[in-house]
Specification:
Largest sheet: 8 strands, parallel, barrel
Number of helices: 29
Structural class: alpha/beta
Radius of gyration: 26 Å
Distance between the termini: 37 Å
Helix content: 40-55%
Strand content: 5-15%
Number of strands: 18
Shape: globular
């Protein structure tokens, strides 16, 4: 218990640092002026709303009041006044043209929120919720003025429910958290090779066969849509065609493009047959049924990763191409999407698809989602298309919050392979180079102001090959909070250390209000070490899972020629480990200050480093006979060694004497090894030719300890 308390104390000290100077808000508002004085929260707010859409605003106020009661101990007296005024009911609510601006004033007479529309009112309440904060005593809200509106209208996350099904309760938790950080689009990936996840009454075999028994009923979908709409979140569904359709084709194999009749459908990377008129009749019926469940104007049709092999070996497709003068698979895709788009248009929907659909000319209203690398942002907007950016924001890559935060939706060079990386790939493996070369970043002129207006925003996809229902909270959060700020706040808000400080506070509040990341991690640790979860959890605060698919054993096996690799059991330490831990952020911030001679947090840093250093004997004792834990024994020992390097560096810094040369060399070797292990999964594709560390774990405290070591050896 002592070790865990040390971690909590250190993380809290970090999270609240500098809070007195400026309220902790995330996303950071466009403009905030803090004034002298503070408004005491003596009881529940006395709310008056005028001009706002009802019952929407009334429900939002009720949620806000319930949240405040959970975050703070309220007095029994009358609380401060809260006036909310909306200028218009806003016909654009839940679209990319929603009126989202708001103004918030806190003064001696209470709180006033002026909003352009209902979305602005929800955002104002989200900001006020964070101003209330959390803690054991009554709050004081500083007098201030905020003038705020989002930089982009499309601020989203994508949840894949096909590869692993996510329960309604779990999805609703994510929507709750999205409202609280002003994310407004849930891209719902509902079909793929692994499963079709919506009840279909028109095509019952989809429900009987393609869902594998796990799906949302139509009533549940309608409930989720309404639940999200109340919270200012649009649900944009995705039915992925023509590829990624193995689940659909298991139910209706007569629609498949057949490359090898003797090969099992699932092994053939199947796609719908674009030369079969029954395909379009099926699409018409399916999309008619599915679009009726989702009121959003946009409908995602997928369109990614159709391989030549999926179509070009089917004689009916080859004959159809010859008869219609179609010369390539890309042209055939364009013809397919034209037919699908005509169906969506008749149903009143706008097509959105992954960036492969833009390989051929499209109507300008089609929305392109850029995912492979950053250069195609330019291609999409310069062809006149509204564009959503997900390149650089793939949360299933298990990169840190700071890594995603550094990527700007307007930056054409932010994500992809550099020429040097492509050249390196060629020296390592020609196949690796062939995969990297199409994603090589080319110099491009920056977007003009008019072109920038076509970028609607961005979203962070979480593909679920390595994410189960109990893992979703910690795989989305806290990193989705960093994306919320990137998509909302002005472009010049870019300080990762300040973001982490504020995100630690907001994440703690989200956990208080219902996120289950800590609870689910503790449950996973208890399964790994019954009765000894605390020892496992201490290790997990110092490590992260390997990144960029290095933990995807199924993919690695397929690359080695295994046709049907076993499904990966997602119950290991790497599956329980967080990508970001407030304890690590706290150590990094404290190390940066200590390196400059500021030792205000040295006691907390020592306690945390000692906790990690002393955890290894306990971990070794409980690991015996447990393969998942035994695999991590080298990492546990290495964490302890890295922590001891940090303690020695702190000693040297406080003594103002350099480390002895022998010790400096010894400690450098420890850090070099930890950094080598982290580098093995630092970049996509290269992970497939790089040996990975034991148990697929990297030591996330290494950068902070390197900072201390560098300062201690520079004296």
């Amino acid at each position: 218990m002592k070790l865990r308390l040390a971690a909590i104390t250190f993380a809290l000290a970090f999270a609240t640092a500098a809070a007195a100077a400026e309220p902790v808000l995330l996303p950071k508002p466009r403009s905030m002026t803090v004034e002298t004085g503070a408004l005491p929260l003596t009881g529940a707010f006395r709310v008056k709303a005028t001009g706002c859409r009802q019952p929407l605003t009334g429900k939002a106020v009720a949620r806000f009041q319930a949240d405040v009661a959970r975050l703070r101990t309220l007095g029994r007296g009358p609380g401060p006044a809260l006036e909310i005024h909306c200028d218009a009911k806003d016909a654009g609510y839940l679209t990319s043209k929603a009126a989202e601006a708001y103004w918030l004033h806190v003064g001696g007479d209470g709180v006033r929120i002026e909003a352009d529309g209902p979305a602005g009112a929800l955002h104002g309440l989200a900001t006020l919720r964070q101003l209330v904060g959390s803690g054991p005593g009554p709050a004081e809200i500083p007098y201030l003025r905020i003038d705020d509106e989002p930089r982009f209208p499309w601020r989203g996350v994508m949840i894949d429910t096909s590869r692993h099904f996510m329960s309604v309760a779990t999805v609703k938790r994510q929507i709750d958290a999205m409202e609280r950080v002003k994310l407004d689009v849930l891209h719902f990936h509902l079909s793929d090779n692994e499963g079709f996840r919506i009840e279909s009454k028109r095509y019952p075999k989809l429900t009987q066969i393609a869902t594998h028994g796990e799906f949302y009923t139509q009533a549940e979908i309608k409930d989720l849509v309404a639940y999200a709409a109340d919270r200012g979140v649009r649900i944009v569904p995705e039915i992925d065609v023509p590829a990624h359709t193995a689940a659909i084709l298991q139910a209706y194999p007569e629609l498949a493009a057949q490359t090898d009749p003797a090969q099992p459908l699932a092994a053939a990377n199947p796609a719908l047959n674009p030369a079969n008129e029954k395909t379009y009749a099926f699409l018409d019926g399916l999309l008619s049924e599915m679009t009726a469940l989702f009121p959003d104007r946009n409908f995602h049709i997928g369109g990614d990763e159709v391989s030549d092999a999926a179509w070009m070996k089917d004689p009916t497709i080859v004959a159809d191409m010859a008869a219609n003068g179609i010369k390539s698979r890309v042209e055939m895709e364009a013809a397919f999407h034209k037919r699908a788009r005509e169906i969506l248009t008749r149903l009143g929907k706008t097509e959105i698809g992954w960036d492969e659909i833009a390989a051929a000319p499209l109507p300008k209203d089609v929305i392109v989602e850029v995912w492979r690398f950053s250069n195609p942002i330019a291609d999409a907007v310069r062809a006149g298309h509204p564009t959503v950016v997900s390149s650089g924001y793939y949360l299933d890559h298990l990169e840190t919050a700071a890594t995603h935060y550094a990527v700007d939706p307007l930056d054409l060079q932010a994500d992809g392979f550099t020429p040097a990386e492509v050249a390196r790939a060629q020296t390592l493996n020609p196949l690796l180079a062939n995969a990297a070369r199409p994603l090589e970043l080319k110099p491009l002129p920056p977007l003009t102001p008019d072109e920038q207006k076509l970028v609607l925003g961005g979203e962070g996809p979480i593909w679920a090959e390595l994410v189960t229902d109990e893992m979703l909270d910690q795989r989305l959060w806290p990193r989705a909070g960093a994306l919320a700020e990137r998509f909302w706040s002005p472009r010049e808000v870019r300080d990762p250390a300040d973001m982490e400080r504020r995100l630690a506070v907001v994440q703690r509040e989200l956990e208080t209000l219902g996120l289950q990341d800590l609870a689910n991690r503790a449950r996973m640790a208890e399964r790994l070490a019954p009765g000894n979860a605390r020892t496992v959890l201490t290790l997990l605060t110092a490590v992260s899972p390997t990144r960029n698919f290095a933990h995807n054993h199924t993919t690695l096996a397929m690359l080695k020629g295994v046709v049907h690799p076993p499904e990966q059991d997602l119950t290991s330490l790497a599956d329980a480990a967080p990508t970001d831990a407030p304890e690590v952020w706290a150590l990094e911030a404290g190390a940066a200050r200590a390196a400059k001679g500021d030792f205000a947090e040295v006691s907390e840093m020592r306690a945390q480093l000692s906790a990690w250093a002393e955890n290894d004997p306990a971990f070794a004792a409980i690991a015996s006979g447990k393969p998942d834990l035994e695999a991590a024994l080298p990492i546990s020992a290495e964490v302890a060694a890295v922590a001891r390097v940090g303690l020695a560096a702190l000693d040297a810094l406080q003594r103002r004497t350099p480390l002895p040369p022998d010790q400096a060399a010894h400690d450098a070797a420890i850090l070099d090894q930890a950094e080598k292990e982290a580098a093995a999964s630092a970049r996509p594709l290269f992970v497939f030719v790089s040996p990975q560390p034991p148990a697929d774990l990297i030591i996330s405290i290494t950068p902070a300890v390197r900072t201390l070591y560098a300062a201690a050896t520079a004296r």
